[in-house]
Amino acid sequence: MKKFSIALLTLVLLAAFALPAVADTAPNEPLHPGAPGAEGRRTPIVAAIEKARPAVVSVYAQVRVETRGGSPFRNNPFHDQFFDQFFFDRWPQQSRQSVVLGSGVIIDGARGLIVTNDHVVQNAQSLIVTLSDGRELPAEVVGADPRFDLALLSVKTPKPLPDLKLGDSDDLMIGETVIAIGNPRGLSHTATTGVISATSRTINVPDSNQPLTDLIQTDAAINPGNSGGPLLNINGEIIGLNTAIMGRGGEGLGFAIPANQIRRIVTRLARGDKNSAYLDLGLELAESGRPVRGETGCLVVDVKSGGPGAAGGLKKGDLLMKLDGSPTSTIADYEMIVSSLVPGQTIEAEIRRDDRPLTLTLTPKTISETEALNLAWALYGLKVNERQGRLVLERPADRSPAQGLGLQEGDLLLAFGGQELTSRADLARAVLETRFQTTVPLAIQRGRVLHRTLISR
User: Fold this and answer.
1) Reported pTM
2) CA–CA dist 210, 148 (Å, integer)
3) In angstroms, what CA-CA distances link 437 with 102, 258, 322, 335?
4) Annotated catalytic sites, by residue?
């Protein structure tokens, strides 16, 4: 027993003398690059994270949340909750401040430009961005495109910020190692690894009538707060922007917006040119789904006489494979490419006609308000007159979607595509912004009754 006590005392003393050496190193301090053995542990993943980490930011958006306060009689012992479901809309509204957590990545340090998700900053009253060095900077929204869940922010600093360039997402390999960095649950600069599980995924988005398409699927752990953070390849390049998870997280189902899609949309948002989203090639397309030598394209169903497509030589039945150098596997691809162009810009269209490859030159043009209203008639059978800040429907076209819904002459068109309407210009804008959707929500008033429904082509 005595020998055991001496041995135990010796161990305690040795541990006590060792404690100061351990305490000299902060628990979160990274091992110095020159420390013995460090190079042997610096894998490509470590190098990629070291390269990207300074450009990853945390985004804090302050938003006002409107909620129903509930029945004013809910504390009454005789209150029957059964009646709440009938009178819910009459309970008083309450508002409170809330903070939405998200991530972002600096893509242009000289101009202080940061890309993130639209759903992170949507309806934000103020934005704060926290940099990797701990600085907190106010941010402004340069532009956003909800259709692709992308937003561009800007911050002002006296010196350029560290940034990260967008890579190429067209050559991704299934099984390729990827890294996600972000601000999940408020834990900034959290890094997780996984592989690319699939590409060109389409998922439905809650409270949206338009799905997100052409997404990268990964099993790298993505949680609430990762939204807007980069998905990196093993070289530390941005190949995607984390945007969604399926389920409650931890299921290995995360999705990211491809880098090449981000590049096009961010270029347009940085220009501040909203009209570029309303360009026209005079084409009606359908997703063919028919592979041609391992590729898929969009089938040209119709070509408008006198439009840019007809002028460039496109014909009905052509298979559009690429536009301006990017694949057009889906109509969403086509929309994304067209929305990034500018009027008068010359682009190349790669097509297949009778299984022969051809390259044509096209020049897109801006769609006018009159053309947009004509599109509403052609697609939906909708024509309106403007009267004292209200849009009154004319008789719908025969055998049109509007007639199929039972819409009548004299109905008031209050909203289209989620946008409130007070003028023909509003309707033209709404039609252009939803022209690639197959189903669009609208609101109609007939007498004192309000109808909300969906209209499909």
Assistant:
1) 0.72
2) 10
3) 28, 21, 21, 10
4) 119, 149, 227
